[in-house]
Amino acid sequence: MRLDPKVRRTVYAVMAALLVTGVAWIVADALKDSAHGEAWQQVASNLLMCHGGAAMMMLMLLGALVPLHIGRSWRAGRNLTTGTAMATLNATLVVTAFGLYYLGSDATRPWWSGVHIGVGLALPLLVLIHVWSGRRLRDERPRR
């Protein structure tokens, strides 16, 4: 179930923005206690705003993917294993982001953050596997 090229490029661009801003935030956050900590605090704050904006775009795209891609693929029984993993990891990112923003206390923030970062870093690899698997399945399908 190939996505329209414009939709596919948009999904990839937003995912790349999320990965770049997320990884850059991890670095900036780690440098907050350095000699130039105040500057890194501002950088981390700006990166978090960009990351949140990209996350809002991703939520809109995920909503569009449900009928355009996920639902059709599910009904067709295509690429279900990696597709289910993709949906699960994306849902985990949404829930942990909600937890960080709205439920994050000093006691729970490290847990929410650790899960969010781990899943966020794993997702690009899963995207590659999902795309590769889908293309392989498409190429193996008998031609009509």
Rg over alpha carbons: 18 Å
Measured by DSSP, the beta-strand proportion falls in: under 5%
Shape type = elongated
Number of domains: 1
Instruction: Characterize the largest beta sheet: strand count, sense, and whether it forms a barrel.
Output: none
The rounded distance between the terminal residues' Cα atoms is: 16 Å
**Number of alpha- plus pi-helical segments:** 4
Give unreliable regions as ranges: none
Helix content: over 70%
Q: Helix- and strand-based class?
A: mainly alpha
Explain how this protein is built.
The chain has 144 residues and is mainly α. It has one domain. Helices cover 85% and strands 0% of the residues. It contains 4 helices and no strands. α1 (5-30) packs antiparallel against α2 (37-76) and α1 packs antiparallel against α4 (109-140). The protein is elongated and about 60 Å long. The model has no long low-confidence stretch (mean pLDDT 92).
